[in-house]
Write a structure and sequence with these properties.
heterodimer; A: alpha/beta; Beta Polymerase, domain 2; 5-stranded mixed beta sheet; 20% helix; 30% strand; B: alpha+beta; 4 helices
Chain lengths: 161, 98
């Protein structure tokens, strides 16, 4: 099943769980509801889709204009050499999504980074804590509400020399 | 503040911290190792020392202004980062290259 028939296969197999299928500069994009995200991922990982690799998981902050966070997943199938992009929209007030660490091991750190940068909570994550910022950092940097240059509170020294 | 490796370590093994600043590492990364003589039994990694806020900085720049930032993503591969960024921009804006 190559790139051309991918859209039809997704429509027939996953059906009503998929909110929309679109094209973005030649790449197929699936838009899904956050509630059905985990079931769609399970279906995509299994045959015949066989998306063995989760390439990337990032977030986009659309809270200013459209009042939502968007999660973007990039999947890749080694056996068929096709990529897929999935997007879900989470409410801006309380962004919670299902964790996919059970399916792809690298989702562990990817979800930690999204949590650190955007504040999106992932239910079912084994160890959700900050990844890139240091202990004592306040706020979620990549949110649009977070100013570009912000003075962080001073961190006390760990051991007094 | 106990880390995971301190909680899970066996009593007869040695815990060594390959601190963020280490001559053997390419860059700053903290690896906490649980050792049995020279064999590594367990390792915990702490990253983020090289996080420069690149994405946030680029949000406040124009498309052309942030080209030097892509140079400095990785010190060994500035040109390929530039190429990746330029090709992405050309694809998105529909700009043809002579």
């Amino acid at each position: 099943m190559g790139k051309e028939t991918l859209i039809e296969e997704i429509r027939t197999k996953l059906g009503e769980a998929v909110e929309g299928v679109s094209e973005s500069f030649g790449d197929p994009v699936l838009t899904v509801r956050p509630g059905s995200l985990l079931s769609i991922m399970v279906a995509l990982r299994a045959a015949p889709f066989d998306y063995a690799v989760l390439l990337d998981l990032t977030g986009v902050d659309f809270t200013a204009g459209e009042g939502r966070f968007e999660l973007v997943y990039h999947l890749y199938s080694l056996s068929r050499n096709v990529r897929l992009r999935l997007k879900t929209s989470l409410p801006a007030a309380d962004p919670v999504a299902d964790s996919i660490t059970g399916l792809w091991k690298n989702a562990d750190w990817l979800e930690r980074e999204v949590f650190d940068m955007f504040g999106v909570l992932f239910t079912g994550h084994p160890d959700l804590r900050r990844l890139l910022t240091y202990e004592g950092f306040e706020g979620h940097p990549l949110r649009k509400a977070y100013p570009w240059r912000l003075a962080q509170p001073r961190i006390p020294m760990k051991d007094k020399v | 503040m106990e880390t995971r490796i301190q909680r899970e370590a066996r009593p007869e093994s040695m815990l060594i911290n390959m601190g963020p600043s280490h001559p053997a590492m390419h860059g700053t990364i903290r690896v906490m190792l649980e050792l049995d003589a020279e064999r590594i039994l367990n390792a915990e990694v702490e990253v983020g020392y090289l996080h420069r806020g690149f994405e946030k900085t680029c949000e406040n720049k124009t498309y052309f202004n942030l080209l030097p930032y892509t140079d400095r993503l990785n010190y060994v591969s500035p040109l390929i980062n530039n190429l990746g960024y330029a090709m992405t921009m050309e694809k998105m804006l529909g700009v043809g290259v002579p």
